[in-house]
Structure formats: structure tokens, C-alpha cells
Write a structure and sequence with these properties.
The protein is mainly alpha-helical. The protein has 12 helices and no strands.
Length: about 325
């Protein structure tokens, strides 16, 4: 799996790092899937969006977190690490194409495999950390007050980074039996945890409301919006993987490699763009950007939401 387009459709489908042809031959991104290119084009389009939109958005998130460092949220460390990893992943797409058609370097290809290992692991784990932070804050506020010191989040961050680098290094080296099952188990576990965690938080926050919609405490309302956005992200970006990958044996090898894998990882990869945009959309004021741009952006979103609500209302 680690040398198929499962998580790297911008590299040849069945490339072996032991072959010397890699250094001398130009490969196509559709190598081995020339008759099934639609899903690969879909994944490549999303990866290009990560470069055009995702990298600037993630850098802006990092800049905002640094700007707000005097009044940080307890989840800012996880958000910053996630934004950094996503920005790093976005820079790999241009390198992939350059290596395919210009450099033909085995070392660069190994670095690309490492980056896909980072994406496989860092996203689910850091999102799980954010969910854990919100889960404890809402359901166990007294315990959360005792664990607000930064040392606990630093320890958890270091653990996630170590796991990420260990997985990415193993992916880069390759050759481990049933290695792909590690990723499948990780995604299934992270998805289940995040869904249960966020569903519990949403239930508690909804239950804490008074008779009116605006009676909820402002801090709880902020937490409600955060966990709701995370729940939308994990359903949109991780549900395709969870729904499709466990049934690998039910597909033919070509269909799984050329259709199922690129589509599943396409949804996962685009999270590098969706996550920072969702974070920015929750901010009341975005530093470094003119107020006119922010107002125009928010007004467009408000107009679209109102149109959607009007469309859903039953006619008299």
C-alpha cells in the first residue's frame, strides 16, 4: 500500500524504489490506471487546492495563533501543530510533480512518502486531541480546571509527534507486512472517538440551554460552534475512508487502487484546506486582513445560508 496511489496519487501507481528505471524514466501520474483516470484527476484537483488555498490559509492560522499568544485557548497548541503539518503537506504536491518529470530522485520520492505518512497520522491524532480537550472542558469542568497547564498539552503534542514520525518513517522505509492495516485501524479508531466525543459534547451543550436559543452561555456557545465544525470536518473528510476501505476485499484490485483509494484519500487530503478555512470562519475578527474583505466574505456566507434556509422552508 505504501507505494500505491492509496495516499499518493501524484506518484506512479506501482513504482518500486529498488528499480533503477525510476532514475532514468519519466512516469505518468496515471501509471497503471490509464483506463480509470477520473478518480485520480479528482484527487489531483484537491491536492492543487491545498497548494493554492490551503497553504496560505494554514499560514494565516499560524500567524493568528502567534498574534493571540497572550490570550491563548487551551486548544491553540493542537491547532497550530495541525496547521503547520497541513502547510507542510501542501508544499509536497509541487515537489511530487517536479520529481516525476524533472528530478527523478529516489531520495525526494522517499521524502514524499514520509510527508504522506505525516498527513495520514497528524490530522486524525491532532483532531482527536482537540476533541479530547473540548470533551473534558465541557463534561468535566472541574477536572479541566486542574489540567489547564500547558505542560499537559505539550506532553500530548510530543506523543502525537513521536507517533507521527514513527509511522511516517516506517511508511518511507516500506516492506512491513500488513502495514496498511495500521492506517485503517487508526482512522477507524480516531473517527469513532471523534464522533462519540463530539456527539457527547453537543448533547451536553444543547441540554444546558434555557428556554430561549440565546440563553446559552457565550463560552459554551463558542465551544458548541467549535465541536459542531469539527464534527462536520470528520464526517466529510473521514467518513469516505471509514465507509470504503474496510471493504477492500470486495473490490477488484484495479478498482480499489484506481478508484476507491484516490477518492478516499482525496477527501482526506482536502482537509488541509477545509480545516483552516473552518477555523477562520469562526473568528469574529481576522487579524492582518482588512475589515472590508472580512465583511464581504462573511456577508457572502450569510447570504448563502439564508438562501439555503429559505429553500428548505415549506411553501404555504
Amino acid at each position: 500500500m505504501d507505494i500505491s496511489p492509496l495516499n499518493s496519487t501524484s506518484v506512479p501507481a506501482q513504482l518500486s524504489l529498488n528499480t533503477t528505471a525510476y532514475v532514468n524514466t519519466t512516469f505518468s501520474v496515471f501509471d497503471g490506471c490509464e483506463m480509470y483516470i477520473e478518480a485520480i484527476l479528482f484527487d489531483l484537483t484537491l491536492q492543487c487546492m491545498n497548494v493554492i488555498v490551503g497553504i496560505p490559509a494554514n499560514l494565516l492560522v499560524i500567524a493568528i495563533l502567534i498574534h493571540n499568544r497572550k490570550d491563548p485557548s487551551t486548544s491553540d497548541l493542537f491547532l497550530g501543530c495541525l496547521a503547520f503539518m497541513d502547510a507542510y503537506f501542501g508544499t509536497i504536491t509541487p515537489l511530487s510533480f517536479l520529481n516525476l518529470y524533472v528530478w527523478h530522485s529516489k531520495e525526494v520520492w522517499s521524502a514524499i512518502k514520509f510527508s504522506f505518512g505525516v498527513k495520514d497520522t497528524s490530522g486524525p491524532l491532532f483532531l482527536s486531541c482537540i476533541c479530547l480537550d473540548r470533551f473534558v472542558a465541557v463534561l468535566f469542568p472541574m477536572t479541566f480546571g486542574q489540567l489547564k497547564h500547558i505542560k499537559y498539552r505539550l506532553s500530548l503534542t510530543l506523543l502525537v509527534i513521536c507517533l507521527t514520525f514513527a509511522y511516517s518513517t516506517a511508511k518511507m522505509v516500506g516492506g512491513l507486512p500488513n502495514f496498511e492495516k495500521i492506517f485503517t485501524a487508526e482512522v477507524l479508531a480516531a473517527f469513532a472517538w471523534m464522533v462519540v466525543c463530539n456527539a457527547s459534547i453537543l448533547f451536553v451543550l444543547k441540554k444546558s440551554r434555557g428556554a430561549g436559543k440565546d440563553d446559552i452561555h457565550p463560552m459554551k456557545k463558542k465551544a458548541f460552534k467549535m465541536v459542531l465544525s469539527i464534527l462536520c470536518i470528520i464526517v466529510f473528510n473521514y467518513l469516505p475512508l471509514v465507509a470504503l476501505f474496510p471493504f477492500e476485499d470486495h473490490y477488484t484490485p484495479d478498482v480499489f487502487r484506481c478508484y476507491v483509494q484516490p477518492v478516499g484519500f482525496g477527501f482526506l487530503n482536502i482537509s488541509s484546506t477545509i480545516q483552516p478555512l473552518v477555523y477562520l470562519s469562526r473568528l469574529e475578527k481576522v487579524p492582518f486582513l482588512p475589515d472590508a474583505c472580512v465583511k464581504k466574505f462573511t456577508s457572502c456566507i450569510a447570504t448563502e445560508k439564508s438562501e439555503n434556509v429559505s429553500a428548505k422552508e415549506p411553501s404555504a
